[in-house]
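[job 0412] stage=fold_complex status=start
inputs:
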Amino acid sequence: MDIYERFINEPVKGFIDRMLEFLPDIIAAVLILVSGFFAGWLAKIVLKKVFTILKLDEHAERTGITKMLQKSGLNDPLSLLLAKIAGGFIVFAFFVVSLGTLKISVIQGLTEKLLYFLPNAFIALIVLTIGFILGNFLGRAALIASVNAGIHLAGHVGKSVKYLIIIVSVSMALELLGIGRDTVIISYAIILSGLVLAFAIAFGLGGRDAAKEFIEKKLKGNQSKNDIQHL
Amino acid sequence: MTIEPQEIRDWINEVGSTDIVVGIPSYNNARTIGHVVRAVQAGLAKYFPDSKAVLVNSDGGSSDGTMEIVRNEVIEDLSSILLSHPTGTIFRLATPYHGLPGKGSAFKTIFEIADRLDARACAVVDSDLRSITPEWIELLIKPVLSGQFDYVAPLYHRHKFDGTITNSIIYPITRALYGKRVRQPIGGDFGFSGELARVYLSRDVWNSDVARYGIDIWMTTTAIAGNYRVCQSFLGAKIHDAKDPGADLSAMLFQVVGSTLDLMETYHEVWKTVRGSSPVPVFGFQYTVGLEPVAVDLERMKDRFRLGVRELMEIWEDILPVEVITLLKDISEHQDYFHIPDEIWARVVYSFAIAAHRQIISQEHLLKSLTPLYIGRTASFVQETMECNAKEVEEKIELLCNVFESEKNLIVENWE
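[job 0412] stage=fold_complex status=done
writing structure:
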């Protein structure tokens, strides 16, 4: 009986006591989580309406974001996508709070770090978004200008401008997130230096004649025989 | 009202009122404005000796003495223009304009002075004209002063390959939209009534692109869409001072076509119901003028078109109908065959207009991406008309305009 009492009854009783002690916390955590789902769903609906009023989808189409998202396999309109992301963030925030109510010290520690991380993550997301918008817009501007200037590598010029801006915004986002801070900067410097050196060698040694012709053309002006007065 | 300073207002009070105002906008045109001023003076003296007239130079801050030339220029020998009797006074004013830098702001000052002086008839001429004659003043002013018309558009004799933006875009689309066959809607030299000048002044456009570069098409479209009595006057050849050969074609297209498309937004209720077009009366004795040949580099133009097809197709696919895309790709791939038919070109222009209205991409990117298509169309047209004379080319432009009119449903149905 002692053995039964000591090795079975008491541990089970202790377990049940702890569960009963823990139960309110679990119930609170579940309630918080359920509220989070509800709040996230509500936020998604409200934000979708707000974005529709602000004509976000029209602006996204004009700046090429919609096309870029479709290429990445995201077919939802930008307003719905952002609303879903915002809703998701809210659910996640409630999830984190619900973990906190469980009063488990390890989890509380992680929760604190996560909450500290979230604002930076949000800003990094904004930086990335701006970088994509700007990269797309300026890349297209460079493409059109290069085509109109008769540059046969116009496609490469446009893409170079676009991806350069995106790379800069990605490195800024990574820096905000504190991910491999120095590594990113050093890698960026190495790649850029390498590109510049490669270009200098190619242009200076390999393309001597082409460079000469190019410079002469630029100095002497357009050799076109077009005299049409368009206006 | 932006007329300042006080001395100009005093001058206006001193003049009181006038029958005619002739305005010359300028910016660093010292080399050419003297000739223009003499032509205007001679025209006023010869053809309107009994009318009170004012010459206004609206200047954009010239640093080469343009305004001093305007103030001091006189015709020394009146008999050289077959004028033997003393003439009435022609008042003269050279003043800087205020507002956004551009021809529109210069015109606004001229409109204000015409309004303050209660002018019956007005004209504006460019300050870099080398071919202006005194007869231009008669031809621009008389139809208005006689009370028959409110707006006089110019009609020039140009080389068959010149004015291709006008010939292939602006004239066909303006004619199809508003139903009036004004051959040179962005000519630059116009006549108009004092009443129309007041209407222009009353519009809230002076802080927009109209003030910068869209004034010509805006004046013509406002006159036509407002149902004013419009006519044209044949002025002969239009020879300017040589423009900067590096002037950016895509910037020109953006400005001119952009202004035309902006006006479509303003006058949608007018053009959506117009079908077909009617001729506009022409004044002046029409004659053929010898023009200098124009060199054309067709291969380079085709090359630019092909480059556009290769690199900008991703943008055009969101704008142009499928059948147009297919044909453009086809033309680009063929080395021997290069022809953009009128129907395809009309659909290109209308599709770009719809894309601008829907703001699919930024208007600047949209219209600058039109450049290779325009160059391709110009190359196609030049190739087609290489052996044609001016009359035959004009017939082909007439056919193009008919196509624009028949394809108009594309834009009417897709506008909303």
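[job 0412] summary: Residues 200 and 206 of chain A are 9 Å apart (CA to CA).
[job 0412] exit 0
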